[in-house]
Amino acid sequence: MEMRVVELDMPEYGSDVIGVFISRWGESLSLGTTRLRWYDVLSGGIARLRPSYESKLADSAWDRDVELARSYMALDWLVRVCAPAWLELAGLAEHASALRCLDAITNVAAADADNSIRRVFAARRQAYRAAREAYHTYAPGYTYRAGYYAGYYARFPAQGAYGAAYSAYEEGGADHFIAYEAYQAVRHAALASAYKADGKVRAELRPTVEQLQLSARLLLDRMIALE
Question: Where are the alpha helices (DSSP H) in the chain?
């Protein structure tokens, strides 16, 4: 299948963290044409961000403290919003609730807390198991297609948040382990959900994708407004 990449023609950013967030979000849209057509109808598509956000992004404030705060905002969203949404869809409500109930991740102490790391690691491990079990139960004859859909659907905003969260690690902030584990939990939970959908991937995954697209745009607004 022919692949095409969404060219966003992104501006120069005042904030490197916001730049990573948007760029990684866009990179995850290297989709086949049929999937791109389906994605284009989603509310809050990344391709619609540039006209309304270009000037705001170019003027966004930058200094080390603000950039670290933005990185933690992305990490917090990935751990307490994005991952729980996919975990819940995969039938892992207990783990979704455990992540949502974590204290806000606003600094290195919160990110590196044993409780945070333990819960995220447990969620990722259970999501992997769920994906493996769903594969054996539902996926024969449908494996590749389901995995392809799930991998890209989950990565739309999650990849941007992971990239932005990693910036905190590079700047001396939280160990990026928690961001990596949360991102893997998203991928495995989405895969489990796709396998369980048994041919109805679009219908089953679309509400979660749209919910997270909107949530990610609200996160972006908050990141830009930070001074």
Answer: 16-27, 33-40, 49-58, 64-77, 83-89, 93-100, 108-112, 114-138, 143-170, 177-197, 201-225
Residues 6+ apart with CB under 8 A from 53: 22, 220, 224
Task: Pick the closest to residue 130 from 96, 180, 101 (CA basis).
Answer: 96
- How far is residue 51 from each of residues 8, 9, 95, measured CA to CA in Å? 10, 10, 38
Rounded distance between C-alpha atoms, residue 108 and residue 36, angstroms: 37
- Split the chain (227 residues) into runs of 10 and give each run's mean pLDDT: 35 70 66 40 46 63 81 93 95 96 87 84 95 80 64 76 76 69 92 79 80 88 86
Q: 78 CB contacts (<8 Å, ≥6 apart)?
A: 158, 161, 162, 165, 179, 182, 183, 186
Rounded to the nearest 10 degrees, the angle between the axes of helix 64-77 and helix 177-197 is 30
Residues 115-149 as b/e (b if ≥16 CB within 10 A, e otherwise) read: ebbebbbbbbebbbebbeebbeebbeebeeebbbb
Question: Domain spans of the chain?
Answer: 3-225
